[in-house]
Fold this protein.
Amino acid sequence: MAGLLAIGLLLAASMVIGVRGVRATRSTTPDFLVASRRIAPGLNAMAIAGEYVSAASVLGLAGLMLKYGIGSLWYAVGFTAGYVAVAALVAGPMRRSGAYTVPDFADYRLGSALIRRLCAVIVLVIMWLYLVPQFKGAGVVLHLVSGAPYWVGVVLAGLVVSVSIAAGGMRSATYVQGFHYLVKLLFIAVPAVFLVVHAGADARASALRMDLTDWGRPLLDVEDSGQPLLATWSLLLATTLGAVGLPHVIMRFHTSATARTARRVAVGVIVLLGLFYLFPAVYGLLGRVFTPWLVEGGDTDTVTVALPGAIVSGTWGSVLTAIVAAGAFAAFLSTSSGLLMALAGGLSHDLFRAGVPRLRMAVAGGALVAVLLSLPAQQVDINVAVGWAFAVAASTFCPLLVLGIWWRGLTAAGAAAGLVVGVCAATGAALASVLTEPEAGWLVVLLAQPAAWTVPLAFLVMICVSLPGRPPQWAESAVLRLHVPG
Amino acid sequence: MTAQRRVRVTSPQTRIALARGHRSLRGLREPQDRPGPGQEAEELAATEAARALFVRQRRLAARTLALLGLLLTGLSGLLGALPALGRLTLGGVPASWLLLMAASYPLLLLIALLHVRRAEELERDAGS
């Protein structure tokens, strides 16, 4: 019950902050999408981090660690390293382009309606891949704290997120997400410290025991392929470059006043992420001692919420569980609002031209599809699905943005070819890894975490198809504009 | 220029964004009207400066990415190549876990800070 109460309070607080945001919103489309650019840099960095730290970080990271070992922490390193690439490659120029979404940028840079449509479709693919594990997280957490069936949490999360977005848009989302970063940090960090202290010296020692099994190996293997280094590198490539191409991340930089602040905000995000990622590891390490049964019979994604009850009994145990559950709910609420916003933008602006009312309908439609996709996805590991979303972004939008910003020779034909090849290769490989059972070896890695070959392939196709073509005359000025200060 | 001239249709967002930046969409898309004799030299100089800045920024971005790649592959390669790091403990924590859990974040921050500082310097130099 305490868990439900905590989640209820969190929802209420989010709504209040959201409604205050609505009052500040003039209901024009740009305001709805990017909050008028009147957001202070510190708040903006917090909102970005709040949106970025998803169920994958709060629940999935500790769960994957419990299941596969300490090497799962490479996910966190990759998620953070992504912001170094964002600061270096896209934050400033994307802000200067004045385009709000990736399809907008493609239109600005390449002037092709076809590419805009293509990008919008890829936005939908990435966003749904990313939303499903968030809703799954909501379902399992609500089940754990209240006993409600899995689908109740999924439907509830879909409802709450679409109502708050449809009502307030991006401006309210900024305040809510900034608030959610603090909730996540505090509600994960404070119980973590408490649990470490309460677990006792023996448990601490055995949590840190280095044994010779694969669990303690500081590299991440996928599906026992026997190629841990290749798997780790492929994952790092996907997460680092995926952050560059994630549509909801890109959209966030337009809430900065200038390109200079956009870059600085990206650096602020690195600080906030590094701080947060110190804590999920605690749950993974203690989970190995206190809740090993989750690996055999349960869902490892629930370890963060199940752990406090396993270590501390009685009232304090339920209070801690409630706190952590509220933190987890904050994670998927804020991430799903950002995802849904980008998804609705893609649906209503880039596929069909429309204003705010249609955008609201697109929000509801996008959420409905995500909920329906999440219902059969209870067995999917949160981080595996999120890893695919990153891999698709890294193999499509990352090459498009990086080449579009830094190479004047990119042509519309080259971009289109690269996008099609990238999205087909990355989603195809992920599908193949689900549907087939290849023998252990490098093939397993290349299917389950395909970034290692799909990202270079997409870059190569874009460059090779662009080279013989001639970019239009204005291409050079379009590129140079992205780098001129002021 | 006649009244029925075909114009490019763009998304309202792009148009608003470009208008907010006080830039005209036409100037971006189409070759501008021939400038006067005095302006021509000025425009050429501005374009040259922009090109030079672009090349410098691109070199910096490439360097930052290389550093980032070196850090990530280096750290993972090191942990993969030296399993002995797991037997070494620091304050009870295996050294390899400590490297993975905490060491990378300050280094990532450092790389990003160096990049932003240098990029802002380049912009300042180009502006003055």
Remarks:
- Chain B touches chain A through 65 residues (CB under 8 Å).
